[in-house]
Design brief:
Largest sheet: 5 strands, parallel
Shape: globular
Number of helices: 6
Strand order of the largest sheet: 1-2-3-4-5
Order of helices and strands: EHEHEHEHEHH
Number of strands: 5
Length: 166
């Protein structure tokens, strides 16, 4: 419904039930399935960071398998900002896919580390900071504080883009 009714351009999906749950989202031109790969939450260790028999991580198996379902034009992956150092290895697996990177700010993710380890030649990142913006202030100044925090993050990202994409 999100795509057939044109209510969204992208939907985050869980890969753990396989192609049956992801595939239908890949059938819509100009739309994106965003597959959970390596999240920011501490419980990522419960599944995503488990080692497979071959020594690799489960999240790497998810990425490898899901890449066979879609393309760089309809499939991206969630990689949490608190896992920034893992982005280097993830970029070796998927150098050209976009990555949705939540967790900058309140969750402790570093925008600079995300850019350093995760940016590709076209940037390739959609960085999200929700709580760091919406909880920037709890007073009547909320809107101004949120705008200031958004502008601060945008300026930092612009600087990082200039640095890393030269």
């Amino acid at each position: 419904a999100f795509f057939s009714e044109n209510l969204a351009d992208a939907v985050t999906v869980s890969p753990y039930m396989g192609y049956d749950t992801v595939g239908p989202f890949l059938q819509y031109e100009g739309k994106w399935a965003v597959v959970l790969a390596l999240t920011s939450n501490p419980s990522a260790a419960d599944f995503e960071l488990q080692r497979m028999e071959d020594g690799g991580y489960l999240y790497e198996k998810v990425i490898d398998t899901a890449c066979g379902w879609g393309t760089t034009d309809n499939l991206m992956f969630v990689v949490g900002a608190t896992q920034a150092k893992m982005l280097r290895g993830i970029r070796r697996l998927i150098p050209n896919h976009f990555l949705l990177v939540p967790g900058v700010g309140a969750q402790g993710g570093s925008l600079e580390e995300v850019a350093r380890y995760g940016m590709n030649g076209r940037c390739g990142l959609l960085v999200n900071s929700s709580r760091g913006i919406i909880y920037a202030d709890s007073t009547e100044r909320f809107a101004e504080a949120a705008a200031e925090k958004s502008a601060e993050l945008a300026a930092e990202m612009a600087g990082l883009l200039d640095s890393y994409l030269k």
